[in-house]
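Final report, Chapter 2: Outcomes

The project's central promise was a pipeline that accepts a single protein chain and returns its three-dimensional structure in a standardized token representation, suitable for archiving and comparison. That pipeline is now operational. To close this chapter, we reproduce one record exactly as it appears in the project archive, with the input sequence first and the structure output second.
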Amino acid sequence: KPYSKALGVRQYHVASVLCQRAKVAMSHFEPNEYIRYDLLEKNINIVRKRLNRPLTLSEKIVYGHLDDPANQEVERGKTYLRLRPDRVAMQDATAQMAMLQFISSGLPKVAVPSTIHCDHLIEAQVGGEKDLRRAKDINQEVYNFLATAGAKYGVGFWRPGSGIIHQIILENYAYPGVLLIGTDSHTPNGGGLGGICIGVGGADAVDVMAGIPWELKCPKVIGVKLTGSLSGWSSPKDVILKVASILTVKGGTGAIVEYHGPGVDSISCTGEEGGPQPTLALPRGSHGLCFSTGMATICNMGAEIGATTSVFPYNHRMKKYLSKTGRAEIASLADEFKDHLVPDPGCHYDQLIEINLSELKPHINGPFTPDLAHPVAEVGTVAEKEGWPLDIRVGLIGSCTNSSYEDMGRSAAVAKQALAHGLKCKSQFTITPGSEQIRATIERDGYAQILRDVGGIVLANACGPCIGQWDRKDIKKGEKNTIVTSYNRNFTGRNDANPETHAFVTSPEIVTALAIAGTLKFNPETDFLTGKDGKKFKLEAPDADELPRVEFDPGQDTYQHPPKDSSGQRVDVSPTSQRLQLLEPFDKWDGKDLEDLQILIKVKGKCTTDHISAAGPWLKFRGHLDNISNNLLIGAINIENGKANSVRNAVTQEFGPVPDTARYYKKHGIKWVVIGDENYGEGSSREHAALEPRHLGARAIITKSFARIHETNLKKQGLLPLTFADPADYNKIHPVDKLTIQGLNDFAPGKPLKCIIKHPNGTQETILLNHTFNETQIEWFRAGSALNRMKELQH
């Protein structure tokens, strides 16, 4: 019996019910943009009939958004899908280039609901209010550009201070079954509310905003089956820290991670709505994945394993959260449609991982990579053995991964116990609320004051130190030190631009406990602290309400609606601006093979987008391509001398900074290439890591493997991301060689290109280079960029 027919009665019933229902808006900010569960269902039924098998949840949502479900070829890990996302979200650092590209397209309005969120340009210095005022002053030109561009082209604008993009999306825009793309790698946060939310580069966002079908390689699906229940100090953060240790930073590449199993719906958190706020920390018993910090946290940090995104099935916790955030109508509609918001029984996963939550211990990952996992009970011993500093200089909680109401409540519960015994944090301690709504609510409910009393500083509702926006004063650059955070990434220099900072990521409550103790040697499960009275005491595992017992306090209104009539709206970019620069089209392919490419740098080891295009102080140039190109690859290690930002100029034979050498080559008409290692371009979605090499004259990036978003970004800008057919060929190429890439006149999907390595002694070697280009992407290359191709099609 065909699988589609087996579900036919239920599907017909749902369809008939939906036809009778009133339309439900995707967001109260866009009352005329409706959730199309009817279209989702129609597309799912078409694809299910074609495939004749049970579908995973990931497949239902992705295939439910196909542009042509009847004819689209569907094969996991093989075919490219043409999709119609429901909406676009952009943070202010990436929105600058995305909007500049959209302006270049010549289109009058965005075709789908879109928003801009100001969260990346606020530097942490002394505290929330002062830091926010300073950011508004310093970034006035950029904020004005984004606000006016949003008004001109129909994009909603969240002002600085509103909060971190992913928390705002969670509170207002994510819903079960949505397909959302965002210009930030942690967009998968929305999977905690049952949506497929995918991080992309700005050029991908421009495609969607222009109404063009968005292309995505059909993802594989990794299933993570959760059993048992969390208890004690174990938290949802430990689930993803454990998964990261299993899959590593590249194990999720090309796949959606889909969580399922009885552990998802296990016993709820102790805190229930109704009654007074807790006045003391309570012992934590068994608990499930409370929505706020649980499922969203796990999906958010899935970016660290290279996953396309992560998702949880619709359940009662999502319904509760939707209702609490003013979206009860969406919850009711999702209830009616629930069969399509959970995986089919008997569906197949390409890989299956099982985690027993009852056996999961608190973890802390790091330093320098988010997949180096240690049980908290063991990290002190490992640190001693490895020579990592034991003393914790700073503990930092918040970020888009762990900044919800429940996160703040659990940390406050730990802090309150210390205060009751006369203790404060031995380490410096900072707190970053996820949104203005979270900030206002934790102020009202007393959590913020408890965290201040224990020694904390409440920072602005922004990304702050998590992305390197931290004016750190307690150490000098090069000073070896340890910090612990509830963030998601801990790459070298990520938080404070100091390569000697050993950063560890863990849950907010563990960060708080370690900041109180001041050392990595402290294990809150077993170790005692000494109170002010000299008596020893042990911290009890914290508990806190998943959601506030009364309604959220929305705080200040920070949203700007785009006007209905924007015909008179001006968007000004000064030609003398050092922050913004209108884009010029990249040159088209000249129809010839790429001859005698100079190697700018052969990268040794890990090379993230932070290494390629650093954040921190460079964020201010995200809207000015030429200025930000001065940070090109300054963090990458040159295999020739083992140094960062030091490469040989092949003409002068002098060593100098990477950007200066690239500019020299560009000035003298020398085309160049980068040689990279494994998982090149992992980390943030920043397309500047693709725009900068293109701007300075690169033609190809050749590596052992790529991270998904970066590979796509390179293609979008007309570059050739190529991989060694034999990874060992990486060792055949030396920085002094020249390369010729042949076969571009016959460039076709699945057909390798030939690379001739020309050594200085006159000898040559030939190797093969693979690629993942499809026909559309080959057209991008020939046109010079995806944007150039879009303009060609318009004409």
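Archive annotation: Residues 57-272+288-356 form a domain with the Aconitase; domain 3 fold (CATH 3.30.499.10).
This record, like all others produced under the grant, will remain available to the consortium after the project formally closes.
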